[in-house]
Amino acid sequence: MTAPELDSLRLLVLVEELGSIGQAAAALGITPSSASKRLSTVERRLGLVLMDRTRRGSALTPDGRVIAGWAHRVLAELDGLLDGAEALRTRREAELRVAASMTLAEHLVPGWIGELKRANSGLHLGLEVTNSDQVAELAREGEVDIGFVESPGATAGLMSRKVAVDHLVVVVSDAHPWARVSRPLTPAELAITPLVTREQGSGTRRTVDAALRKAGVRAVKPLLVLGSASAVRNAVIAGAGPAVISAWDVADHALVPVAVEGVDFVRVLRAVWPAGRRLGGPAAELLALAVRRSS
Predict the structure, then answer these.
(1) What is the mean pLDDT of residues 198-217?
(2) Where does the HTH lysR-type domain start and stop, copy by copy (predicted)?
């Protein structure tokens, strides 16, 4: 037995509801002849006589009325499935899961999110703040729709797009000896000095290490490892030691920038999402907004 097509089941239900093939055909926008052929096909597939055809017209047989009742329930279940799928799709489109590294989360992402929310008042948005390596992992595993990282270079398994540029600076407290040095430090002087640093996996730590390697010296030796930019900044202010932090974190704080000869602590900030996946909906809107705001 071959299952009848859904359009044919709809026709059968309409015949029962409207009382004739002609009215059912008109409701579906087809000819009575075409409707009659469809019903004949259903009868052959089910092996049942559904229509009592006479010169005075056609009507459902008792078997036809039973099948029409079952068809009505099948179509109602299908409508429920489609309505449910639409509700899930609409809810999914109204949700945006974002992850951002510390610097981006403190200085850029809130402004982007605020603008997106003003344009999409019904948007439900979640933001997870962690270091760049963890953001990349969340994006790679599909745990977030889009991530923002400050890692130097490409990230495996991810598509990316530049959204901003950040400059890092060496800073000390005003009581530190470097605050009174008039000449730039050499890369070697910085490399042999234990620094207050972020943890492994942070974009700041990786940028500093990469810049020093490019200058021909080894990576810095940590004096104190802390889990956020604000913690690093506060430790420097308290006199714990020098650090390399974002220029955004220097403003309005008791910190003294110190130049380093021949070392450029610049990093590209990127949006990331899984390789092979095309961004759509709110994630694409957020990316476009971030690119536009930073241009």
Answers:
(1) 86
(2) 4-61
